[in-house]
Amino acid sequence: MAQTDLQPITVDTATRVFGVIGHPVFHSKSPVMHNRAFAVTGYPAIYAAFDVTDIEPAAEGIRALGICGASVTIPHKTTVMKHLDAIDDQARKIGAVNTIVNNKGWLKGYNTDSYGAVHALLDQTGLSGKTVMIIGAGGAARAVGHGLCEHPGTRVFLTNRTEKHGLILAQDLDAGFVPLEKLETTDFDILVNTTPVGMYPHTDEMPVPESVLRPEMVIMDIVYNPLETKLLYTARTRGCKVIDGVGMFVYQGARQFALWTALEPPVAQMRQVVYDTLNNY
Ligand code: NAP
């Protein structure tokens, strides 16, 4: 549906309020994505951005103001957990919450990042019988790794600049570890970059040398600023199938929308508005 076909939102006393809590949040694409999803489904809600440095009163504020749900982003994904009433099993295993659902003052935390990464991949490639190499050992790698390790028939390996960090996460996930310098001689089908390498303003950097990329591979970068990172540009020109970071972002948001509304998320329209916003940036 084109934006001009959308009905103007009437904000009244029945309007439900959602938002993203983080610091900083001025760059977040969650408000345009979720407001578009509410508009196309006719769900009576608005979504705002809350720049929050102190998470404890923010969690209390969700209860006090009756905010129906929130996205949680850097730096609060872990610290928010102790201020919630319940944590979903997968979020507990990952050790981070990116979604809060408020059920009459009872706050439950979820993590939709692993769902987002797995569904962004499944849009473009099968995962059963495939070997996936994850670059990185930070918070995003932990979420992506959990999702992929739970997927039936998928073998998961990690590589990381600091071996110690990579080995610790690989052990937690029950995944394999491959040192960065051995990547060129290691067989895998899918490569997922979860490090910030290549993100604006360091757009001329790549997390692995070009020689690692073979045409039969699928390469996903979860960085989406720029949309085509140097890794994705190089992979595309070498003949690989590439998946940009918008895929994971949109699917993690789609899962949030479903948790908040119990409606089918309008994934195509959510994706379109994020691309439009990034292209006009
Ligand atoms: P993080 O916890 O800070 O991750 C740091 C990881 O990146 C570590 O493994 C670190 O290696 C590695 N790293 C950092 N700088 C490096 C460099 N110059 N060279 C090599 N490795 C480097 O960050 P995060 O929260 O996981 O987020 C990572 C990226 O994912 C961010 O760009 C974020 O915007 C993006 N993200 C995207 C989505 C999405 O929906 N598309 C969702 C979440 C996150 P060491 O262990 O050696 O320090």
Describe the structure.
The chain is of the alpha/beta class and 281 residues long. The chain folds into two domains: 3-111 and 247-279, Leucine Dehydrogenase, chain A, domain 1 (Rossmann fold, 3-Layer(aba) Sandwich), CATH 3.40.50; 115-244, NAD(P)-binding Rossmann-like Domain (Rossmann fold), CATH 3.40.50.720. The protein has helices spanning 30-41, 55-65, 89-94, 113-122, 139-150, 163-173, 230-237, 246-261, 267-279; strands at residues 16-22, 45-51, 69-72, 86-87, 99-103, 106-110, 131-135, 155-159, 176-177, 190-193, 218-221, 241-243. Strands 2-1-3-5-6-4 form a six-stranded mixed sheet, sandwiched between helices. It has a six-stranded parallel sheet with strand order 9-8-7-10-11-12, sandwiched between helices. Helix 6 links the parallel strand 8 and strand 9. The structure holds NADP nicotinamide-adenine-dinucleotide phosphate. NADP nicotinamide-adenine-dinucleotide phosphate (NAP) is lined by residues 113, 116, 136-141, 160-162, 165, 194-197, 199, 207, 222-224, 245, 248-249, 252.
Features:
281 residues; Rossmann fold; six-stranded parallel β-sheet; binds NADP nicotinamide-adenine-dinucleotide phosphate; 19% strand; alpha/beta; 35% helix
Strands of the widest sheet, in order across it, are 2-1-3-5-6-4
User: What is the total domain count?
Assistant: 2
What is the fourth-level CATH superfamily of the largest domain? Leucine Dehydrogenase, chain A, domain 1
Give the helix proportion (percent range): 25-40%
What string gives the helices and strands in order?
Answer: EHEHEEHEEHEHEHEEEHEHH
CATH topology of the largest domain: Rossmann fold
The top-level CATH class of the largest domain is Alpha Beta
Distance between the termini: 22 Å
| Dominant shape | globular
Number of helices: 9
Bound molecules: NADP nicotinamide-adenine-dinucleotide phosphate
Low-pLDDT segments, ≥5 res: none
Mean pLDDT: 95
